Amino acid sequence: MRRGLVLLLLAAGCAHPALVPRGWIGTPSARQVGYLHLANWTEQTPGGVAHDAVLDEATLASLGDGVACVDLVERTGVDYDEPIAEMAPVCKTGVHQRGAVTDEKITVRDYDFVTNEVVARIRDVTPFGFQSVRLEQPTSEIFRVIERRARLCCPLAGSSRVDVVVKNPRLRVNDVGASFGEAFSWRVQ
What is the per-residue burial (b if ≥16 Cβ within 10 Å, else e) of 108-140? Predict the structure, then answer.
């Protein structure tokens, strides 16, 4: 299953606040999407599986009474699944602090794809040269994605800007020490 998640070198963007009218809070219009990334590496799916199988979402759900809440949807390959509370969710709502995660729900989604499995390799060395034959056959595989939905709430320090950052401690590039993460940001008008 380790081959279930393939990492490709891609450019990753920075989170800039989305301007959201107050009336959009809690609606699909306050939704942002993204992929876990680290510098210029981004989370990918195996060939044949649509990239949006690991597309993450964040919706500014509420803002007021001293609290900002965001509905998060995190999708990762089964090998890198982590509860949202373990993804070190941090809110920046005027102050930088860890958020409270509630109502986490889990859904498992399986995506079928086909790869080629090597069933035989034949090599021969003769006085006149080298010969090699490799026989492959199509093999059905499953890419299992764990979808986690939860609400993240943070105290609001009088700011109209809400920033949320999550990091997946299990998803790293060559054990560099830094985790894949993503940021979502809103500025309420």
Answer: eeebeeeeeeeeeeeeeeeeeeeeeeeeeeeee
Please name every residue paired with 139 in a beta bridge, in sequence order, or none if there are none: 115
Is 26 a member of any domain?
A: no
The closest alpha carbon to 164, from 62, 92, 76, belongs to 92
Token match 């764990």: residue?
146
CB 185 within 8 A of CB 17: yes
Query: For the chain, how many structural domains are there in total?
Result: 1
Spell out the residues 6+ positions from residue 151 whose beta carbon is closer than 8 angstroms to its own: 61, 69, 70, 71, 72, 101, 102, 103
Q: Give the contacts of 126 (CB within 8 A, at least 6 positions apart).
A: none
CA–CA gap between residue 157 and residue 96 (Å, rounded): 10
Confirm whether pTM is higher than 0.90: no
pLDDT tens-place string over residues 120-177: 998 888 888 888 888 888 889 999 999 999 999 988 877 788 999 999 888 877 666 6
| Continuous segment of H or E residues that includes residue 69 | strand 67-77
Residue 128 lies in a domain: no
